[in-house]
Amino acid sequence: MASLSSHKWPTVLKEDQITLRPLRLRDRSAWLAVRKTNRAWLSQWEATSPISHENKNLPSYFEMVNYHRGEGRAGRSLTLAIWFEKNLIGQITLGGISYGAYRGGHIGYWIDERYANKGITTRAVRRLTSYGFEELGLHRIEINLRPENAASKRVAEKAGYVFEGLRPRYLHIDGSWRDHLCYVKENPRI
């Protein structure tokens, strides 16, 4: 059975024109450009802190990349940029990775609006899920999403995740505690 000791960093996953890989320092301008272009599109779905001053003291790009590298090396969280052909179009994370009796984690993602509804996010979720099951030996992976996010719900369902239930006031998003729907996929081999 796979485990943390079999985890390799940096993790690079490919499928056709899609590459999932850790952000590099030299990706800064591409990452900042896609985030700026999509600020309004993403703000309604992204986590915020209930403590207002924390939202003003966000890490720099370099601090974020270094943090994700450390988490990736430790096998606690894999945050990967989504590249379509040569374009940085989003980010996906397999986070909260835990072994022992739980053997699970959760997937979160964001995508450039210009690439939404093209099946790219679903393919990225499938690829990262396969990695979690086959390489890390995880038993269970969750996707938690806002009930209003119909596109994300379609991603979870097309990637084979099954609705498990409602999580009231689960995460602080866009300034308030928001309900989330929990979708789950279990590893058929464990």
Automatic annotation (TrEMBL):
Signal peptide: none annotated. Residues 18-188 form the N-acetyltransferase domain. InterPro entries: Acyl_CoA_acyltransferase (IPR016181), GNAT_dom (IPR000182), N-acetyltransferase (IPR051531). GO terms for cellular component: cytoplasm. The keyword Cytoplasm does not apply. Pfam families: Acetyltransf_3. SUPFAM superfamilies: Acyl-CoA N-acyltransferases (Nat). Gene3D superfamilies: 3.40.630.30. It comes from the Bacteria. Keywords: Acyltransferase, Transferase. One of its GO terms (molecular function) is protein-N-terminal-alanine acetyltransferase activity. Belongs to the acetyltransferase family. RimJ subfamily. This is N-acetyltransferase domain-containing protein. It comes from Actinobacteria bacterium BACL2 MAG-120802-bin41.
